[in-house]
């Protein structure tokens, strides 16, 4: 904790606000404006931007939005213009009889202005932002602010020194979400009607949120997982046959997923089972094969059963025999 002498020094200067944004032309009495905010009202403060705050150094700022009194309680309300913190304020409360240099740390205690619409982003454990404030001379505040009196900031008033903001945005991983992207879907053959799925496609299906603690990663079908200790990263990649290998059955469905209309195998992909699909001939892969019949062999397509028949019928392979009795005796 800083020594009282340091707080005494701060009673006579704009700190913790940027010079020129507070303490300018402060009158000796009466309710000041926010730009005239007496230096002795706040002697120190600091803020921590959480991992999900979207705060960017040099782009966003923190300022004292409002000071107001209700009964014997004086509230100091701070605001930040980071996208995820819109409409969310940190509020520090003081009793008019509070000792000078009272310190309060607000961790995740936020105040929503009822006149503004907002939605609180998902956050598992780390607060979106937090901070501390050390108030100055409470007798001065009590003398100038009466019950229901309020001071509100205009543009660039009471802006907090950037050095007092610690930015943790996108610096740590505090939880993991488990989700699947939309599956790979079959495309209709040329000349056939397009497959129709009776539910939304191209969506992400969330299985679990806010997974924390010791987490074990295991590769699934056709997947690899690599850890890099040098840059503290985990890379999940697709690789045919890796991990659990290639599935021969349909992967489990989510509650929202149903196969396309008219699917013969009831598969979400709309295609055939893996043991029903021809992948190669003698090691030669597709996706397109050209089969040509020759002498004694006919190629017969069977579209209804999704198959091709190779018929060794020996047509056009008959020999001309002049004397059948000679052939019979030889046999």
Would you kindly provide a written description of the structure presented here, covering whatever features stand out?
With about 325 residues, the protein is mainly β. The protein has three domains: about 5-165, no CATH class; about 175-190 and about 195-275, no CATH class; about 280-330, no CATH class. It is about 5% helix and about 30% strand. The chain contains three helices and 17 strands. It has helices spanning about 5-10, 140-145, 325-330; strands spanning about 40-50, 60-70, 75-80, 90-95, 105, 110, 130-135, 150, 165, 175-180, 205-210, 220-230, 235-245, 280, 285, 300, 305-310. The strands form six sheets. Strands 6-4-3-2-8 form a five-stranded antiparallel sheet, with helices on one face. It starts with a helix and ends with a helix. Residues about 115-120 have low confidence and may be disordered.
Structural class, from secondary structure content? mainly beta
Give the overall shape: rod-shaped
Number of helices: 3
Give the SSE string: HEEEEEEEHEEEEEEEEEEH
Low-pLDDT stretches are 116-121
What fraction of residues sit in β-strands? 25-35%
